[in-house]
Specification:
Elements: E1 28-33, H1 37-41, H2 43-52, E2 59-64, H3 69-74, E3 81-87, E4 90-96, E5 99-104, H4 109-116, E6 123-126, H5 146-153, H6 161-174, E7 181-184, H7 191-206, H8 210-217, E8 223-226, H9 234-244, E9 252-254, E10 259-263, E11 279-281, H10 285-308, H11 314-318, H12 321-334, H13 344-356, H14 364-368, H15 371-388, H16 394-409, H17 424-432, H18 437-448, H19 457-474, H20 476-484
The structure holds D-mannonic acid.
């Protein structure tokens, strides 16, 4: 079969949507860091809509910060790829044209810095996942991270988001170019403000005056992004290629639901994303809290409870009555911590339908990755607030115990799933010794910095210890029954 490309677009079957604009006339206006499946299923499609509507100045240069996979697969197909939207009713296919070129940062860091300094580039967006923010246990920038140490010494060969952004900001300033806006699209609370704070820490360590310039002239709006994007499998590639009649070696698969809420602070201009479904707001926090605590919190719960119960996918795990009931109990604990005025009932109703989508095959092990970076904002912060107000935390704390048990079970239990965590080395040291649940939990809390320095930590820890004892003695099923009944 021929490969997907600009030249083969005309041969696609009529039901496949495709770019109908002149791609050669598009100018890059956005550099995106972290060009994984999520970005291609979400932001890149909003930009594709804007380009089709004639906003030709907002093409995307995509950069991978680590692997060459995406560039290797997409460059030969003119950076085109297919978005497959799947539900129980079938699959809609759309070829997306907003990606203009792809870079691999470690191969040639200077090229990425040059791209960030293009005069036409006005927005830098990021989906680099939680761990690329390199926060230490106290939430500040991890100056002990070897890549941060490297970036502070090797200014023109950066490895981290901080090194790249600061180098580009400096060069643009020196050249008298207007600054860009930096838009984080990662699942972190106040993601723009968090990135700004960490970048300022880095900038202060790099040089006098720089932090003040960033503080004065760069906007960091926060945003809430939402779309479930399972990892693409070989079967997906084969099915999509067969439907297209040409080979697409890098399609992405997603659900019909899609949401993007963005703080409207773009001094250098922006595409009219709101014309295509994005919501522009002054303050993203209520949307973000609801998403992190209700969606991502329950996602992590389903992942760890599901893995320990032998469920491979979200739909499978959520189809088990005990886990479904557990998730409802978890929502009941999280909802009182959310700002007033949110329609949580409609939101959780919609989540239920999304998790039940039988076509997604979203693997529990995929969500289980990087728990130490995810649980603080998804579960621990919620539980801390609940303890503060003397309210129940049984479900929330069982998620933490299940994460610990699932990390421990990896490698020992064949069906415990494969996933990884940036703290794996430290976790392995803790699990290497056979010790009480109390000792394990205390050490894991120290390592991950959960509720660090908070008065509520002891109470949280004790609840997690009790759950871990039950899991160890009687299994995850018994632990679930203890909190949410038969
Ligand atoms: C998931 C998220 O993998 C995970 O941790 O919880 O990626 C989730 O699918 C997205 O945030 C949905 O918008």
């Amino acid at each position: 079969m021929t490969a997907l490309s600009d030249a083969s677009l005309t041969a696609l079957p009529a039901h496949v949507a495709r770019p109908r604009y002149d791609r050669s006339a598009i100018v890059p206006g956005i550099v995106h860091l972290g060009v994984g499946a999520f970005h291609r299923a979400h932001q890149a499609t909003y930009v594709d809509d804007c380009l089709a509507a004639g906003e030709t100045g907002w093409g995307i240069i995509g950069a991978s910060l680590r692997s060459t996979d995406t560039r290797d697969a997409m460059a030969p197909q003119d950076c085109l790829y297919t978005l497959a939207v799947r539900s129980g009713q079938g699959e809609d296919l759309r070829v997306v044209g907003s990606m203009l070129s792809l870079l691999v940062a470690p191969e040639d860091p200077a090229r990425l810095v040059d791209a960030l300094c293009l005069p036409s580039v006005r927005i830098i967006t990021l989906t680099v996942t939680e761990k690329a923010y390199m926060r230490n246990a106290a939430g500040g920038l991890d100056f002990n991270h070897s890549d941060i140490v490297w970036d502070l010494a090797n200014h023109d060969q950066p490895k981290t988001i901080y090194g790249f952004l600061v180098e580009a900001i400096l060069r643009r300033q020196a050249a008298g170019m207007p600054p860009f806006t930096v838009l984080s699209c990662d699942n972190l609370p106040a993601n723009g403000e968090t990135l700004r704070r960490l970048l300022l820490e880095f900038a202060k360590a790099r040089g006098a005056g720089l932090a003040a310039h960033i503080d004065r002239s760069i906007a960091f709006p926060s945003s809430m992004v939402d779309r479930i994007v399972p990892a693409t499998t070989d079967a997906d590639r084969a099915r999509v290629s067969a439907a297209l009649g040409v080979t697409d070696s890098w399609p992405v698969l997603t659900e019909p639901f899609c949401q993007w809420v963005i703080e409207d602070r773009f001094p250098a201009g922006r595409p009219a994303w709101e014309r295509f479904g994005a919501t522009m707001v002054e303050d993203v926090r209520p949307f973000e809290d609801m998403k992190l605590r209700l969606l991502n919190g329950s996602h992590s719960a389903i992942a760890y409870l599901g893995l320990l119960s032998g469920h491979e996918t979200v739909a499978d795990a959520f189809g088990a009555p005990a886990i479904r009931r557990f998730v409802q109990g978890l929502w009941n604990e999280a909802i009182p911590t959310l700002p007033a005025g949110l329609d949580t009932q409609t939101y959780t109703g919609r989540l239920t339908a999304r998790y039940d989508n039988p076509a997604l095959q979203h693997r529990t092990a995929q969500i289980a990755n990087d728990g130490s970076q995810k649980l603080p904002q998804r579960i621990v912060a919620t539980a801390t607030e609940q303890v503060r107000r003397n309210a129940p935390v049984d479900h929330l704390t069982l998620v933490i115990a299940a994460w610990i048990a699932a990390c421990d079970a990896r490698g020992r239990t064949p069906d415990a799933g494969q996933f990884s965590d940036p703290l794996d080395a430290g976790l392995a040291t803790i699990f290497a010794v056979s010790q009480s649940a109390a000792a394990t939990v205390t050490q894991v809390f120290d390592l991950a910095g959960f509720a660090s320095g908070q008065a509520e930590r002891t109470e949280l820890q004790n609840a997690v210890i009790a759950h871990l004892e039950t899991i160890r003695a009687a299994g995850i099923g018994a632990a679930i029954t203890t909190v949410s009944g038969e």
